[in-house]
Write a structure and sequence with these properties.
Shape: elongated
Number of strands: 0
Distance between the termini: 86 Å
């Protein structure tokens, strides 16, 4: 069966429906115009993704994000700035602690 090009991810519902009906990979591939290996690889990726989602792991697409995904919202900017401020505050606190330790060390060794 020839078909116009569509990514296999667009056939997810159809593949899962045929799989639930008990069709084999070869039968699903023949029905949708894919090879048995393509269906096998798709099912592996799909199952892995579902396992990650069930475990609460955020699934990101591979590669460079599209321009639509890369749009920066005010909420994203705010979160990023909060993170930067938190990191700077943590660094300042660490440096203050190091300074205090150095002062204590010098006072114990009777140096100024």
């Amino acid at each position: 069966m020839s078909r116009s090009y569509r990514h296999i991810e667009e056939y997810t519902e159809e593949i899962l429906r045929l799989r639930a009906e008990g069709k084999t990979r070869r039968e699903i591939g023949e029905a949708l115009g894919f090879s048995k290996e393509q269906i096998k690889n798709f099912m592996s990726r799909y199952n892995r993704k579902q396992e990650k989602l069930a475990a609460g792991i955020v699934v990101h697409r591979k590669g460079r994000p599209s321009k639509k995904e890369a749009e920066i919202t005010d909420q994203t900017k705010t979160a990023e700035l909060r993170y930067i401020l938190a990191r700077k505050e943590a660094r300042i606190k660490r440096l203050e602690m190091e300074n205090e330790l150095m002062r204590d060390f010098l006072s114990l060794t009777e140096r100024k």
